[in-house]
Amino acid sequence: MTRVKICCISSIEEAKLAVEYGASALGLVSSMPSGPGVISEDLIEEIALSVPPGISTFLLTSLQETDGIIEQHRKCKTSTIQICDHLVNGSHRQLKKALPGIKIVQVIHVTGDKSIHDAIDVSKNVDALLLDSGNQKLTVKELGGTGRTHDWRISKIIRESIHVPIYLAGGLNPLNVSDAIGMVKPFGLDLCSGVRTNNKLDETKLKLFFQNVREADKNN
């Protein structure tokens, strides 16, 4: 089955609900310049420590310096770090050396063909890529949680061009997930608003989303 990461988890109860319906990973959002789902580092730690073995916990960070990311992760204690912006001080290799056993996932905001070259270059030093629909060039950066899809044609090219898993993000919901899997064939899917109503996880949407993922997997 295509893995599913439910992002913007805001409580232990939401974490349990997402896992109950089939999530293999949970996204925990630290401070961001914009977007939904931000919670405190104390709450990230509390949720991460409550999750059963085998379920990955992602710390979403907007920090761009390795020293700051390392310090933040040591507080939050997740199994994975999702870097939502580009590094400006330090490297992915330094992160992996400092945090043995912790997976490093780099977000690529798919804005055009240049994203293909960016993805190929960074994929050599990380455990996975997450292809999203943000925009780092705005005055207030969008680093995720936009609810917008991007050009899946580019995501497919990236998936075919690299040798690490990719997560597909950006505007996924129960109605378009079958098309996303059929076209891109990602290792995993990442979503937030597509299974929420009034910012709360919606059991009906969760159930339908996972049903449609299973059906799409059978047909692809």
Shape: globular
Kindly give the count of domains: 1
How far apart, in Å, are the first and last alpha carbons? Answer: 11 Å
Quickly count the helices: 8
Q: Could you say what the CATH topology is called?
A: TIM Barrel
Residues in helix, %:
25-40%
- CATH H-tier superfamily: Aldolase class I
How much of the sequence lies in strands comes to: 15-25%
Low-confidence stretches: none
Rg estimate, integer Å: 16 Å
Provide the CATH architecture: Alpha-Beta Barrel
Largest sheet: 8 strands, parallel, barrel
Kindly report the spatial arrangement of strands forming the biggest sheet.
1-2-3-4-5-6-7-8
Query: What string gives the helices and strands in order?
Result: EHEHEHEHEHEHEHEEEH
Number of DSSP-assigned strands: 10
CATH class category: Alpha Beta
Tell me about this structure.
With 220 residues, the chain is α/β, with parallel strands linked by helices. The protein has helices at residues 12-21, 41-50, 66-76, 92-98, 114-122, 152-161, 177-184, 203-219; strands spanning 3-6, 25-29, 56-61, 80-83, 103-109, 128-132, 166-169, 188-191, 196-197, 200-201. An 8-stranded parallel beta barrel has the order 1-2-3-4-5-6-7-8, surrounded by 5 helices. Helix 3 (66-76) runs parallel beside helix 4. The longest helix is centred in the last third of the chain and has 17 residues, at 203-219. The model has no long low-confidence stretch (mean pLDDT 94).
